[in-house]
Amino acid sequence: MRQLLLPVLIILLLAYCSPKEKASTFSSEIENIFASQFNADEPGACVLIRKGDSTLFLKSYGLADLDTKEPITSGTLFNLGSISKPIVAYGILMLRDEGKLSLDDPIIKYFPDFKNKQIAEAVTIRHLLTHTSGLPDVRKITEDSVFYLTAKDAENWAPIMQVDSLAFNPGEQFEYSNPAFNALALIIEQVSETKWQKFIEERIFKPAGMTTSTITDGPHPETGVSHCYIKVNGQWLEKDYGEEPTFAAAGNGGVWSSVDELIRYELAMRNASFISHRTISESYEVIKPENWKADYEPFIGLSWFINTTKGGDKIVAHTGSQGGFFCHFVSVPAKEILYVVLANRYYDGEGSYEQVFSALEKYGVLD
Length: 367
What we know:
Layout: H1 2-35, E1 45-51, E2 54-61, E3 63-65, E4 70-71, E5 78-79, H2 84-97, H3 117-122, H4 125-129, H5 145-148, H6 153-157, H7 179-192, H8 196-208, E6 214-215, E7 229-232, E8 235-238, E9 255-257, H9 259-270, H10 277-283, E10 305-308, E11 314-322, E12 325-332, E13 337-343, H11 349-362
Antiparallel strand pairs: 1-2, 1-13, 3-4, 5-9, 6-9, 7-8, 10-11, 11-12, 12-13
Helix pairs in contact: 1-11, 2-7, 2-8, 8-9
């Protein structure tokens, strides 16, 4: 009997010890993914992996500001780039839930000066939210880069209002559109009768406890945030407001936040702190227009990009890049997993994402 019990006890002991060993090995594997990409005296990033209420990995690399040598922390504010788009989308959905607009409203209702009335009557708010409007981006950013250094939402949307033809009929296919979200921000402002940045701060940031997050409104902010950089001929050059055209156009990419506050944002979505569970779930569902004609299946919800894990769980995500900022926000709601990278320089976002999810699968975090 003793001979039989001893192996069983050893197996039980190993099983009891394995979670710590697993956690340590998982952290080491994640560290290997990112440590090689960032140096302590250069621009860097903050990386978070979290499951439920447990932080599986959190580490900051490099400097937030090369002039002041301020190190990056989990509280450092980064420009989120296009991760701002779902936040703008929730502003629209709030107003929809309050009966103040419909996602099927044609944009002529909000932009009566649109040159081609037929186009403005065919394109709806839903088309803008899902990048299926067919509106071409005709902004002359290269030819008039000086103007676009300070051009805000209205100035970035104005050229689109002059188009006289569409790239495709609304709803037929996907084409990513930054100006669409400049328009959505302006619609929030019209309907709420308040500055859209203020609306988001009051209706999303405050309920979520995002007390330091802010939104671009012109040359903002110059201090208290990270600056971003690109490497040219071996030298790091600043590339944000004043250097990057369209940086002041906030509807498509003007939110500034930190890893700490994006945790609060994710929890606020899980807990329906600023909008209903029903609307959150709706935003996570892939939208397929009735007249869809592309030779691929749609993959976008109400501004979120939707995918699935190998186990079939829904992945809700958005990337963000603007100037020298490169960011990743990924959630697996069913498993309460959150993966965030906020970087103020280029890094291998897609490659890192794939490696991180391979590690999550390898160590059973997605189980």
